[in-house]
Design brief:
Number of domains: 2
Number of strands: 2
Number of helices: 10
Largest sheet: 2 strands, antiparallel
Shape: elongated
């Protein structure tokens, strides 16, 4: 993946939470060994998942989603079991019991962990985050034009113009007579500094829809940028 791609703050937070969870699990394994117990704790993978998320690894994102689904299914089950438990609950740190807490406290922790897992899941499945991991780029039906545009816009907003262009190339293959797709690709090419290719795309858009005023306006902007009359915009907000 592109090392210059900007990481959204929410994705950083998700990655850090996985890393912290992985470190905690690793310490728990070590503490268990010190007490002559073997603790197979898959939570250690959180360390690698977090680092993978920061590198936009599609595989580690999938692992993160699996962990989160397990948490979102498992936590409610554990909470239900707590309701039927009459004794105080063991409070453990690094796998070792250090005291006891009430059932209400345990349920509160379960609710917090569930909501945190759900929030992490929502972050990893947001369109802009999915685009950063290259997910959803290979849509194939003509009905997916809006999805293509949404994915490409997310890529442009995150500064990944190459990915936006790749998305739109796939869209154009499926919808070769869609003027708006050529117009969107022209914008991505202009943002990337590829003016001659942008000019060819905007001309193609005009050949399909000659009377579109928005396309005419973008044509004027492209000409001004190419001639140096206007600073090159780097996002839709700068147009």
């Amino acid at each position: 993946m592109d090392e210059n791609r900007q990481i959204p703050a929410s994705l950083k937070a998700v990655a850090i939470l996985f890393i912290l969870g992985g470190i905690y699990s690793a310490i728990e394994v070590v503490v268990s060994l010190m007490h002559s117990h073997i603790n197979i704790n898959f939570g250690v993978l959180g360390l690698f998942i977090g680092l993978g998320l920061l590198r936009f690894s599609r595989g580690w994102r999938t692992c993160a989603l699996v962990f989160l689904w397990i948490a979102m299914i498992g936590i409610p089950i554990i909470a239900i079991l707590m309701l039927g438990y009459s004794q105080p609950l063991d409070f453990k740190v690094f796998g070792q019991t250090v005291g006891h807490v009430s059932k209400e406290f345990g349920l509160a922790i379960a609710v917090i962990l569930f909501l945190l897992s759900f929030w992490q899941y929502r972050v990893l499945t947001r369109p802009d985050v999915r685009t950063l991991f290259g997910v959803g780029l290979f849509l194939s039906s003509i009905e997916d034009k809006d999805a293509y545009r949404e994915e490409s816009l997310s890529a442009m907003n995150s500064g990944d113009f190459k990915m936006a262009i790749d998305i739109l190339d796939n869209a154009i293959k499926c919808n070769p007579q869609d003027a708006t797709l050529y117009r969107s690709k022209a914008l991505a090419l202009m943002f990337a500094g590829r003016d001659s290719e942008a000019k060819a795309c905007i001309d193609q858009s005009l050949s399909i829809d000659q009377n579109n005023q928005l396309t005419q306006s973008i044509t004027d902007i492209l000409e001004d940028v190419a001639s140096g009359k206007r600073l090159r915009p780097k996002s839709m907000k700068e147009i």
